[in-house]
Amino acid sequence: MRETRHLDPAERGRIVLAHGQRLPTHAHDRGHLVYPATGVLSVTTARGTWIAPPTRVAWTPAIFAHHHTAHGNADMRILFLSDALAARLPTHPAVLTVSGLAREALLALTAGEADTGGRAPEAVDRLHAVVVDELTAAPEQPLHLPEPADDRLRALTGILYADPANQQTLAELGARVGASERTLSRLFGQELRMSFHQWRTQLRVHHALTRLAAGKSVTDTALACGWANPTTFIEAFAALVGETPGRYRNRQLPTGSGSITPVSRPNGKAGEGSRNRLPSPA
Question: pLDDT tens digit string along 211-220?
Fold first, then answer.
């Protein structure tokens, strides 16, 4: 997978990423927002993977080592926040709903070459505050795939990462990984704070986002991600993403006929608190 440079924390602006392009694992001393004006962006840390379509913004606090991956051609907007503003947002990575007002402020602040359109510093500060005001009024969105620690859960989730359309029950998957249905159900609640059904639905929606961003049809995506019919897929997708898959797909840029990049589990190199630094630009 291709990698490219990231912005220094002193900068704000945009990076346009092609489908499947990835920014290298890194960490910052300041928290930052990432908004995909087009496409879909995934943010991966040791805690799991967050997915942000254009109706959402991804928040990564300072110090969390992470990497970004584009699904579809992604117009990635990056905004670093002051410590005072960052303190108003969650202490963990999160995906938040982006209102129309927050979206326009983010786009204005990241219009190009890290400039601010001739605005006075006070006006720039007010726009930052508007973005955070809007985000603090928005609930966290369930677009997070937590990463398990238990070996049995890791084996089970690995099976489903590789094949989101897998229809096996929890009991059947348990037989493959050497754990009972009851044990696995308990582990999902204890470690991942969600049920097996909820986790698998999240995984399938994540995978669907990447397929739709790459130009696949709603029907093909529904079948490839494990739904028996498009209607149930549309309902599950809209409940999590906030819009129908058809509308979401129609807003994406053409991405050609390249291969699909499925949602993948974290690579283990993005541990919290890691002070990884970015490689020099190529």
Answer: 887 788 999 9
